[in-house]
Amino acid sequence: MKQGTKFVYELDGNLYVNLTNRCSNACTFCVRNGKDDYFGHELWLEREPSAEEVIQLIGDPKRYRQIVFCGFGEPTYRLPQLVEIGKAVKAKGGYVRLNTNGQASLIHGQNVAPLLCGAVDFVNVSMNAQTPAAYQAVCNSVFGEDAFFAMIDFAKEVKKAGIEVCFSVVDVIGKDAVSACRTLAEQAGIPLRVREYIEP
Ligand code: SF4
User: Of 122, 103, 108, nearest to 190 (Cα)?
Assistant: First the structure.
């Protein structure tokens, strides 16, 4: 696997921030499976960047539609850096989105959703499946089936903290599963976005 220092990359007018390759999941559909790059961007890191480095690389965030924490890994592993970068971007008038597997509070052993206030405008939580067992079958979380409940709770806590949030699922899980996910999202009072599957 080729490793580098691609800490930010531009796609569709957004600037994506690649803070880490660590992830508590090993999803069967992950775009990084068996790949060195994502749309030509080599996202395997030889080291993790500092917040200051990323802030410098972003420059003026208003040049982009959104600054998105995403990358080849779960950004909330680097929560302090994520919050520092997010606050710096927002102070310069940028819009910040976080794409997450929703396991941040399990990773950090406490409810960390309120820490995102003032640092993140929008959180996209990957729901991925309709039951704990189905979730674990596709996501292989290190936290086992607890990850599913933690993911739903995290989204609710983000909403409670006053940050805009949505769930997402990939259409490849099938119509019935998507419909069950929609019901769960409605129960949580959070919108669901159905994404198209991207071939790994
Ligand atoms: S949570 Fe995201 S980065 Fe982690 S394995 Fe799943 S798709 Fe890949």
Answer: 122
- CA 74 – ligand 1 centroid, Å: 7
SS3 38: strand
Ligand 1, atom nearest to 101 Cα: 1
- Which class in CATH covers the domain with range 8-195? alpha beta
Q: Can you give the pLDDT at residue 41?
A: 78
Of the candidates 1, 46, 171, 61, the residue with the CA atom closest to the CA atom of residue 18:
46
- Mean pLDDT of successive 10-residue stretches along the chain, which has 200 residues: 89 96 92 79 92 98 98 94 98 98 98 98 97 96 97 98 97 92 97 81
Cα angle: 60, vertex 17, 85; to 5 degrees: 60
- Residue located nearest, by CA, to atom 6 of ligand 1: 27
Domain ranges of the chain: 8-195
Q: What is the pLDDT of residue 33?
A: 82
Residues having CB closer than 6 A to ligand 1 are 23, 25-27, 30, 32, 73-74, 101
